[in-house]
Amino acid sequence: MVDTEVVAGRRDTAYLQRAHEVGEIEAVTSVLRRHRSHQKIALATGGARQTVTATAVALRLFDFFDVVVTREDVERGKPAPDLFLLAAERLGVAAGRCLVYEDSDEGLAAAADAGMDAIDVRPLRLLS
What we know:
single chain; alpha/beta; Rossmann fold; two-stranded parallel ribbon; 5 helices; 42% helix
């Protein structure tokens, strides 16, 4: 039997050692940089807070977010809408006024279930 907690811990440890190697999706980060001064922005992710923070810091993007919501903040992860709904609540923004940039089928389903519009960023990786 596989202990998923042990596997996840090892994965996260290995990731943290290489977080500085992560590249940005320029098409997405340019939107973030352009709208930061006049839009509330949340980072809502199924990742662990420690790895998410390390990635955002390595990309010099952490301070761009008004709110950060991770899997530790909700009972149900994607494809449940909980991450996105909590992020909207913490931002003080109605779910229907949110736009999600997403890189997974589960996340796109979660955004739809939350009543939010979404952009699939996976094709944008090819442009960066």
